[in-house]
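User: structure tokens for this one?
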Amino acid sequence: MTPTGHASAPAARRQAARGRRAVLRAVVVVLLLHTAFALWVWYSWGQFGRDTILVWMDFPASLIYLDRADATFLAGSLLLGGLQWGLLAALLTWIVGRSARG
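Assistant:
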């Protein structure tokens, strides 16, 4: 800390790098969890149940791929649903990190 109470430039860079790593870790973990859960639902539930679960799990992104066939539906859920949950995880991690720092 400098006499004015601000962190030095190298310390601020290290703190920013830790924040970016935390956001990246959260995104990767959420993408892996979403992929695992979506694939588990897809292969272990019946047609009606799996479509319903995936639509509600990825709502509102699921509205984009709702009328697609089976393979396209699963790909849409994995890509767009994973992107949606990854962005949400990044935002929440960033908010919690900012509030914890200051």
